[in-house]
């Protein structure tokens, strides 16, 4: 796309580096900003820059947090011995929204993915293993997505902690509540039969 | 969406003000920037801010341009008497890509749209009418999208210039080259029959 302005061209090139945003969308966004008052662009870029510069991570669980120890980790009513292992803040938000989890989290910051150049050393794995070794953690709940990368990451952590006295679990996979069986994929349906639960417990929270 | 960080929350709120970008996408983009080196965020926000601060518009056609008179308007081989009236730079880029138009453009900067609070005074209409009144323009080609807003804008301009000695035309609407008739909408197909062209001329540029 050749443009009549290098300024516009550079802005579009930068915006289209964002994941899922193509050149056409980037141009649409740039033209939108040009039509709006300068204020809007200043607020937008200011908020992004400030976030990137000043963001901090909880010392305990590595979740994004404005304070040194996040609200969840510093909450005395949460069970510090049950740790849910997740990829990023979106998973924490999703599980917190259920209101059903009373333990704490450990945010890895990603999954092991050689294709994307992400190895174990770039993730918060050492501190997790430490929590197991020191006996702080009594149960780990693996809640990474069930992809090859998720499984690889789970297994990498598992190998380092399997000899310690700890309960290991994974979130249940199965047919979503309200979904019809006939539309479920075979792997999910198969798992939901193998990992069936006692009927009485299936009535909880329904 | 409640987040564990006000910094993140504010950035997501700002990003999701962009058209077509919801809260979920905004969060994904913000987390992407947090995973990348600070450089990337600085380049992105720098390019956007610089564009918004320093952008200029061609004195003649009002298209976005880094110089006072854009490349098209200052090109001596272009016919200054044939003016194609378009909405914004995307239309200019699309028509330029065909390589078939040798006239110049007049960029309105939008369409009349009372719903969006855009009246004629916010568009570059006065200078267009001036070009007609002074006799600089011999033909205007209306190339706005055929929506209610486009038609309203065309008609608003038409009323002001209809008494002057000028050829008025509109880009041809019809079945796209290569498209099957059976899949065309009725309005388009109807127009393509009413505005049929001599067979010999239909062979050009095929």
Automatic annotation (TrEMBL), chains A, B:
Domain of life (superkingdom): Bacteria
Gene3D superfamilies, A to Z: 3.30.60.80, 3.40.1360.10, 6.10.250.240, RecR Domain 1 (1.10.8.420)
Domain named Toprim: residues: 81-176
Keyword line: DNA damage, DNA recombination, DNA repair, Metal-binding, Zinc, Zinc-finger
Keyword Metal-binding: yes
GO biological process: DNA recombination; DNA repair
One Pfam family it belongs to: RecR_ZnF
ZnF C4-type: positions: 58-73
One Gene Ontology molecular-function label: zinc ion binding
InterPro entries membership: DNA_Rcmb_RecR, Rcmb_RecR, Rcmb_RecR_Znf, TOPRIM_dom, TOPRIM_RecR
Family as reported in the entry's similarity comment: Belongs to the RecR family.
HAMAP family assigned: RecR (MF_00017)
Job description of the protein: May play a role in DNA repair. It seems to be involved in an RecBC-independent recombinational process of DNA repair. It may act with RecF and RecO.
Protein name, as recorded: Recombination protein RecR
Organism classification: Bacteria, Pseudomonadati, Bacteroidota, Flavobacteriia, Flavobacteriales
């Amino acid at each position: 796309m050749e443009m009549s302005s290098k300024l516009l061209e550079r802005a579009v090139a930068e915006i289209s580096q964002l994941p899922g945003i193509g050149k056409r969308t980037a141009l649409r966004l740039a033209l939108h900003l040009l039509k709006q008052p300068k204020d809007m662009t200043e607020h937008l870029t200011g908020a992004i820059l400030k976030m990137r510069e000043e963001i901090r991570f909880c010392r305990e669980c590595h979740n994004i947090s404005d304070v040194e120890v996040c609200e969840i980790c510093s909450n005395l009513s949460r069970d510090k011995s049950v740790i849910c292992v997740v990829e990023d803040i979106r998973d924490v938000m999703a599980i917190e929204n259920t209101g059903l989890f009373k333990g704490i989290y450990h945010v890895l910051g990603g999954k092991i993915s050689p294709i994307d150049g992400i190895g174990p050393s770039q993730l918060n794995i050492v501190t997790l293993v430490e929590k197991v070794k020191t006996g702080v953690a009594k149960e780990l709940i693996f809640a990474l997505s069930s992809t090859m990368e998720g499984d690889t990451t789970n297994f990498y952590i598992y190998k380092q902690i399997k000899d310690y006295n700890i309960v290991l679990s994974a979130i249940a996979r199965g047919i979503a509540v309200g979904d019809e069986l006939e539309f479920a994929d075979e792997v999910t349906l198969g798992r939901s039969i193998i990992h069936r639960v006692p009927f009485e417990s299936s009535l909880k929270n329904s």
